[in-house]
Design goal:
By secondary structure, this protein is of the alpha+beta class. The chain has 9 helices and 6 strands, in the order E-E-E-H-E-E-H-H-E-H-H-H-H-H-H. It has 3 domains: about 80 residues, Ribosomal Protein S5, domain 2, CATH 3.30.230; about 40 residues, no CATH class; about 140 residues, Butyryl-CoA Dehydrogenase, subunit A, domain 3, CATH 1.20.140. The protein has a 4-stranded mixed β-sheet with strand order 1-2-4-3. It has a two-stranded antiparallel sheet with strand order 5-6. Helix 1 links the parallel strand 3 and strand 4.
């Protein structure tokens, strides 16, 4: 079992290029990937997302990619003489008109915008960044997956403990059920005793209502289903594939059965235990939200 929370870093250097990748993930119902790639590398985003989807099934994953050149690299620079002359002519004309000193220092010319330009590198000479990026990305994913696995083991332990708490509550409820049935049977007998003064039609209606109330007050079925759901949860917690959605569904079923039990319970002690169970299920649900 894995958590959806984690962090990973990866770095690779090849062909004069250094690539660093930082990744983090948090809980989300579906897989939601966000990339921050350097300008000109957006075409590689689909490849990156495909790699991430092979490791992560759910969660919001954010990745930041930094690409730098390494080694001795020289970028050709050229002087735009036409641009420099145009700036010089205009500024000297303005200076003369305003009674200011003309431009006389070449260092002042260097401050003019767009005087120097860097030559664009030949596309055929640019290195293929993808192999290096893939290596760095896989390294970050490995670290991220390991952290998610460690966090998942912690969540598994917590959830098993909470399952144990809920099972203990059911063990307290089970001995109370026969007593609850006996009390209900006694109330029915007392109610039937007083039916002699009623008409046959009214007696039949009262008996039907008593039978209906008796059925509604029996919570054995809810207790049995709760035990079954807890067994399913334990089985899911022992699996290695993503189980977050399944656990979330089981939580909903546990809450539904406990809600029904608390409404139907004819004894205050059973009702109290059912309410305590609902609090435990809520704790389980909070932890399940982080399970992949």
């Amino acid at each position: 079992m894995k958590s959806m929370t984690g962090f990973g870093q990866g770095q690779a250097v090849a062909s004069g290029v250094s690539v660093q990748v930082e990744m983090s993930s948090v809980n989300r119902k579906n897989l939601d990937v966000h990339f921050s790639l350097p300008r000109g590398m957006s075409a590689l985003e689909s490849r990156c997302q495909k790699l991430i989807s092979e490791t992560c099934v759910r969660g919001r994953v954010q990745a930041k990619v930094l690409v730098e050149s390494v080694g001795e690299t020289e970028t050709p620079v050229s002087l735009n003489e036409t641009q420099a002359r145009e700036w010089l002519t205009k500024l000297n004309a303005f200076a003369e008109a305003e009674g200011l000193s003309p431009v006389k220092n070449v260092m002042d010319v260097l401050r003019f915008p767009r005087v120097f330009t860097e030559a664009e590198a030949d596309k055929d000479e640019q290195p293929d960044v993808w192999p290096t990026l893939e290596t760095a990305l896989r390294a970050a994913l490995t670290e991220l997956a390991e952290m998610r696995k460690v966090e998942g083991a912690h969540l598994q332990k917590v959830l098993l403990e909470l399952c144990g708490e809920l099972e203990a509550l059911l063990e307290e409820i089970l001995p109370l059920l026969p007593e609850a049935r006996a009390e209900l049977s006694e109330r029915i007998k007392q109610a039937v005793t007083g039916l002699g003064d009623l008409s046959p039609e009214m007696q039949n209606r009262v008996l039907q209502e008593i039978a209906l109330q008796a059925e509604r007050s029996d919570v054995q079925e809810e207790v049995d289903r709760l035990a079954g759901h807890l067994q399913q949860m334990r089985e899911k917690l022992g699996q290695t594939e993503p189980v977050g959605r399944a656990l979330d569904f089981i939580c909903q079923e546990l809450a539904r059965e406990l809600n029904t039990l608390s409404v139907k319970a004819s004894r205050s002690d059973i009702n109290r235990l059912a309410l305590a169970g609902k609090e435990t299920v809520e704790k389980i649900r909070e932890q399940v939200q982080n399970v992949e």
